[in-house]
Amino acid sequence: ISSNVWQALQKNWDDAAMIEIMMLVGNYRMLAGFLNSTELVLEAPIEQRVQAFLQRVASDISVTP
Question: CA dihedral defined by 20, 31, 53, 25, rounded to 10 degrees?
């Protein structure tokens, strides 16, 4: 995280909260890396939810100027 980003975040959160957020993001990135490298197959209901989410995100991005 750059100094500028850290300073901007300090306007809303204290250092402890920002460190906790970074640890949470890091853990999710690590989990995603593990799941991708093991090529784990999601259960059908979860896969459907993920695909629906990705479609919503893609449609939001295409609408945004």
Answer: 20
